[in-house]
Amino acid sequence: MFDDDDPYLVRLRRVALAFPGAEERVAHGRPGFRAGKFFAWYGGSTKGTADTRVPYDQALLVLPDEGDRAALADDPRFFAPAYLAPSGWIGLDLTAGGGTGPDDVDWQEVAELLDASYRQVAGVRRTAALDAAGGPAAHPGDPAD
Predict the structure, then answer these.
(1) What is the model's pTM?
(2) Residue 97 pLDDT class (50, 70, 90 cuts)
(3) Rounded to whole angstroms, how far apart are CA atoms 116 and 68?
(4) What is d(CA 88, CA 130) in angstroms, rounded to the nearest whole number?
């Protein structure tokens, strides 16, 4: 369901695995990033029949802050991922910017989405370590570099 050499996934790994205690696990055929619990997934789809389901093979699924969810849902780059949306998850189509590859993604935005999702599952010690280190979202520029 995914290509290990996918350039979007390669960049996403660099950001997601920079969070304290983060690790990658493949589950349900897709790479997921966890810190105790999953805080992000790579790839997904909308719910529906085979004729109506929309695949998003190059997408980031996160659990956003409650206060940000409505604004993100109004952004056309975001979608409600199958099975996870009822639990508050939202998907970002990494290819929706109309560019030609991962260089056209706002990786600072990705880091901020990952930060919010990570903080919801990581626990007190990991969150304290993130605050002490600053984490990928605290550094200006491209956190994937």
Answers:
(1) 0.91
(2) confident
(3) 10
(4) 23
Paired tokens of 123? 């626990």
Beta-bridge partners for 56: 44
Strand 37-45 relative to strand 30-35, pairing: antiparallel
Q: Which burial class, exposed, middle or buried, applies to 88 when counting CB atoms under 10 A from its CB (0-12, 13-18, 19+)? A: middle
- Token pair listed for 78: 């975001």
At 38-92, the pLDDT tens digits run: 999 999 888 888 788 888 899 999 999 999 999 999 999 999 999 999 999 999 9
- Strand residues in the chain grouped as ranges (E): 23-27, 30-35, 37-45, 55-62, 78-79, 90-93
